Automatic annotation (TrEMBL):
UniProt cross-references to Gene3D superfamilies, sorted A to Z: Zinc/RING finger domain, C3HC4 (zinc finger) (3.30.40.10)
Reaction catalyzed: S-ubiquitinyl-[E2 ubiquitin-conjugating enzyme]-L-cysteine + [acceptor protein]-L-lysine = [E2 ubiquitin-conjugating enzyme]-L-cysteine + N(6)-ubiquitinyl-[acceptor protein]-L-lysine
Protein name, as recorded: RING-type E3 ubiquitin transferase
UniProtKB keywords: GTP-binding, Metal-binding, Nucleotide-binding, Transferase, Ubl conjugation pathway, Zinc, Zinc-finger
SUPFAM superfamilies per the UniProt record, alphabetical: RING/U-box
RING-type domain: residues covered: 69-114
This protein's pathway: Protein modification; protein ubiquitination
EC number: 2.3.2.27
Molecular function in Gene Ontology: GTP binding; ubiquitin protein ligase activity; zinc ion binding
One Pfam family here: zf-RING_UBOX
């Protein structure tokens, strides 16, 4: 998966980093270059990235892409028009994108492989939600809230200690 440079998204500059810790690995991921490389020289991986295993960078990028609708590239939601819905072929599309797809004879075609999915009389509202993905979203949201809570509590404790000493 390629991730564009943050400074110049259209620059197309990337470097390859092995996905696995074994030096003989032939699988690579693309990591954005932060500076213009000099002719044939390779970019150095920043110190903070050296401390983080390459699989972790790949995992975080993969998880983020799994949480997005592949049609509109918006993050799926727990409710509303961004709820992930399953098609018969196994692909997942957000509710809003399904509403935009043509519905013929109560059948919607997958935007990726054109496989038909019957919707019944209730239209796309009758399609099953992707509950595995919804559970993942809930767990990630809970983890984020929990880490924010701990971070806030830690900062408050540090401020309290700092004000106690002054």
């Amino acid at each position: 998966m390629q991730v564009p440079c943050k400074e110049e998204p259209a620059s197309g500059r990337y470097m390859q980093v092995p996905c696995k810790e074994e030096p003989a690995s032939e699988q690579y991921m693309q990591v954005p270059c932060k500076e213009e490389p000099a002719s044939e020289q390779y970019m150095q991986v920043p110190d903070q990235e050296k401390r983080r295993p390459s699989w972790m960078l790949y995992w975080s990028t993969t998880v983020h892409s799994v949480l997005e609708c592949r049609v509109c590239e918006d993050v799926f939601g727990l409710q509303g028009d961004k709820v992930p819905r399953l098609l018969y072929c196994g692909h997942t599309v957000c509710h809003a994108c399904l509403l935009r797809l043509p519905l013929r004879d109560n059948v919607v075609q997958c935007p990726f492989d054109r496989q038909p999915t019957p919707t019944g009389n209730s239209g796309v509202w009758g399609l099953k939600k992707n509950f595995a993905l919804l559970e993942l979203l809930e767990r990630l949201q809970y983890t984020q809230e929990k880490s924010t809570l701990f971070l806030t509590a830690d900062l408050l404790e540090k401020e309290r200690q700092a004000s106690h000493y002054t």
